[in-house]
């Protein structure tokens, strides 16, 4: 049975045990009630209260308790039995050392496919020529790459085509000349991209922590002290559909809105279920050898 991740999203919620089940109660209303056998993690996104009986059951059934503050993970309670996390971490380190291409090519395959979906949408709708066919061809080449260097070359080739297409789609008044990560004089679209990627990083970070993965051990991004390498790996699949595409739509609707930070922040509505599902897929692949399939936008 595939276990579920339970979220605590209501301020003032009380998490308790009732007749052997874990319940989330808000003002005497039961928001959810689950058997501990069907829960893998409980994610606390807001201030709430917690019964010590829940902690006892969490230890017994190997349930991870993860706590957030301001959308960032701040603590994760590991059961005294050390059931899952240590096993995941050891296998994750082995895979990162011995077989990083296995996952790196899937992350980049998903990334370029999803970039193609974004570009192809406008090609199909307006008849533009944005390099979609070339981008689609590169996705196939990524799968046959033999090492990290070849994968990164294909990623760079895809990025060149993709951002050229994005530039064509954006109003010239924005002054977008290409993707830039840093700089004091960034154009409004690059500034908005950086905000979106920052928010996406927090969501993926939370999913990685909740799944029991080590966020610092990546497959594509090399280990560097303090760098969330695995988070950056997993983010690749979501950048275009969750950040780029809504911003392109906003810019084409009214480019002036990109200068209003409140509008930019409110533009991003991430599908948390998809992000958490990908983290769980990665765990299942690392632990049990299941095929890892990237998130494929439609």
UniProtKB/TrEMBL annotation:
Cofactor: Mg(2+); Mn(2+)
Protein's recorded name: CRISPR-associated endonuclease Cas1
PANTHER family (UniProt xref): CRISPR-ASSOCIATED ENDONUCLEASE CAS1 1 (PTHR34353)
Acyltransferase found in the keyword field: no
Assembly and binders: Homodimer, forms a heterotetramer with a Cas2 homodimer.
Listed EC numbers: 3.1.-.-
Keywords: Antiviral defense, DNA-binding, Endonuclease, Hydrolase, Magnesium, Manganese, Metal-binding, Nuclease
HAMAP family named among the record's database cross-references: Cas1
Pfam families: Cas_Cas1
Function: CRISPR (clustered regularly interspaced short palindromic repeat), is an adaptive immune system that provides protection against mobile genetic elements (viruses, transposable elements and conjugative plasmids). CRISPR clusters contain spacers, sequences complementary to antecedent mobile elements, and target invading nucleic acids. CRISPR clusters are transcribed and processed into CRISPR RNA (crRNA). Acts as a dsDNA endonuclease. Involved in the integration of spacer DNA into the CRISPR cassette.
Matches recorded under InterPro entries: Cas1 (IPR050646), CRISPR-assoc_Cas1 (IPR002729), CRISPR-assoc_Cas1_C (IPR042206), CRISPR-assoc_Cas1_N (IPR042211)
MF term (GO), any: metal ion binding
Biological-process GO terms, alphabetical: defense response to virus; maintenance of CRISPR repeat elements
Record-listed Mn(2+) binding positions: 155, 221, 236
Top enzyme class: hydrolase
Similarity comment: Belongs to the CRISPR-associated endonuclease Cas1 family.
